[in-house]
Amino acid sequence: MANDTTKPILRLIRLLGKDKLKVYLSFVFALFYSITQVAGPVLLGQSITVFAKGMTKVIKNNQPFPFNQLMFYIALCGGAYIFNWIFLLLQNYVLIDVTQKMVLRIRLEISEKMAKLPLSFYENHLYGDILSTLTNDVNVLSLNFRTFLIQIADAPIYLLMMIVVMFYRSPILAVVVILSVPVSALSSKLVLSKSQQYFDAQQKTLGELNGIVEENYTGFDVVKLFGHEEEDEAIFRETNRKLSKASEKALFRSYLLAPIVMLVGHIAHIAVLILGAFLTFLGKIPIGDVQTFLNFVNSISEPMQQIARLGSVYQSFIAAASRVFAFVDEEEEKDTSVEGVKAENMNVSFDNISFGYLKDKIVINNFSFDVKEGEHIAIVGPTGAGKTTLIKLLMRFYDVLKGQILLGNVPITDFNRDTLHELIGIVPQEIWFFQGTIADNLRLGREDATDEEIEVALEEVGADYFVDLLPGGINFVLAENGANISAGQRQLLAIARAFIANRSILVLDEATSCVDTQTERRLQDAMIKLMEGKTTFIIAHRLSTIVDADKILYLQDGDVKEHGTHEQLMKLRGLYRKMFDSQYT
């Protein structure tokens, strides 16, 4: 069974798909690269031997210098190095293409995964941590997987061919050079095995730090308002210190390897030089072979030094791959839909449902209520009563733990989530606008909405008065989350978006919470038009907005404590009446 280190690598290799053939082609280039890499030092040694012997003949025997033979070996040596460069270039070209396509597949897989994850995943994870996984960790894969493939292709072939040639030229010197390999390898294994835990900690802490930065940036006004700068700075400082310590430990243990490998290489260098000179003096090997073996000492230690330098990158690469695949493997929303199912009407029935974000902490408890098509139902109650949770259950952002919700006599679990969401329009309590024009943001409700329909919707909800004053009107570019318009204006645009969507069921979650009294009055007529003929759920703290609702539910601790019309509940003189009087008397 593959261990925790090899699992991500094997999975990445499977992601290569049909491009595995290109990887095999890169291995062919690696073979020829290794052949020319070994041939170069051998031919250089031969050139030196020919030159040395030629000069000896000239000096001692007054014979002509073997110029043609020397030029032949020099030409072969030069050709070997030129082809070595060409094969390295081809190998890198192929692997760049392969790895970039693999990373493209990973990003597409992540993008598809994001749409399939339940809302609970995003609510239980720091956005900064998720962002770190989707950007930083994927970039680490993109930058380093190609290097990994090059190493596993080049090193074994090159090492094997070098050993064969060395033993052919001089077994004694071959043993001296080869002895440096296990020493370097054992050092690599020892150091890298100890440093993996620190690279894992480094990536994890980096995600935490990104989460803190993201929260402090998006909530900057709240931080300033409550004077929480020093506390947040202290949290950032502590997390940053943890990241610095984790990085320091990881990099120090990884970089320990390079000096060790370098020291082993220097010792081997000295041994080859002394022993080679002695063997040359005895006539056992030609002088050029000493140069060849010195090159091989450099060559055999160079891959080990590359592995040493690769150690830190490799460790963080494994940690990044593990985090990316952990995200990809997160449990998706379960598809329980039944093909071809259709709602008979827009009646909504909550049938003895129970729900809790944690199974041991129930928020909605045995809740039952029936809503007829076209009815306007207001849901009120203290904070934490379960009002917004009911809407999340209706939208199937979460599934109930017990009971069922019916839409048109069909359990909503039988609907495809996309189909269900196409029936429901919502003005949420927390509004979000993307960077882009007002028109583009309003078309999220309906992509084929014309400019004329958008302008009509803005007029109906009373938002035309400020949109017409903006540069470009509906083509005015909103900043991220509409930061360049007021909170009340964002609320009006959200209502206009729901107006354009024109869904059969409407949810207004504190739809007028950010508008002033004058704007609220302007909205009332628009709301009546918006809700006409639609099954509507209105969540409100401002009770003046729901006095005309067909039914009002007063929720507390996940149960319906009171229900009826405004007049009925006022006469009851219960919890609703107490809340109403607290606002208006």
UniProtKB/TrEMBL annotation:
InterPro entries in alphabetical order: AAA+_ATPase, ABC1_TM_dom, ABC1_TM_sf, ABC_transporter-like_ATP-bd, ABC_transporter-like_CS, P-loop_NTPase, Type_1_exporter
Q: Does the keyword Cell membrane apply?
A: yes
Entry's transmembrane regions: 21-44, 70-95, 148-166, 172-192, 255-282
- Membrane topology value: Multi-pass membrane protein
Q: Which residues form the ABC transporter domain?
A: 348-582
Q: One cellular component GO annotation, for this chain's record?
A: plasma membrane
Q: Which UniProt keywords apply?
A: ATP-binding, Cell membrane, Membrane, Nucleotide-binding, Transmembrane, Transmembrane helix, Transport
Name the Gene Ontology molecular function terms of this record: ABC-type oligopeptide transporter activity; ATP binding; ATP hydrolysis activity
Query: CDD domains this protein is in?
Result: ABC_6TM_Tm288_like (cd18547), ABCC_Glucan_exporter_like (cd03254)
**Main localisation:** membrane
Q: Origin, by domain of life?
A: Bacteria
Q: Which PANTHER family match?
A: ATP-BINDING CASSETTE SUB-FAMILY B MEMBER 10, MITOCHONDRIAL (PTHR43394:SF1), ATP-DEPENDENT PERMEASE MDL1, MITOCHONDRIAL (PTHR43394)
The name of this protein is: Multidrug ABC transporter ATP-binding protein
Q: Which organism is it from?
A: Pseudobutyrivibrio ruminis
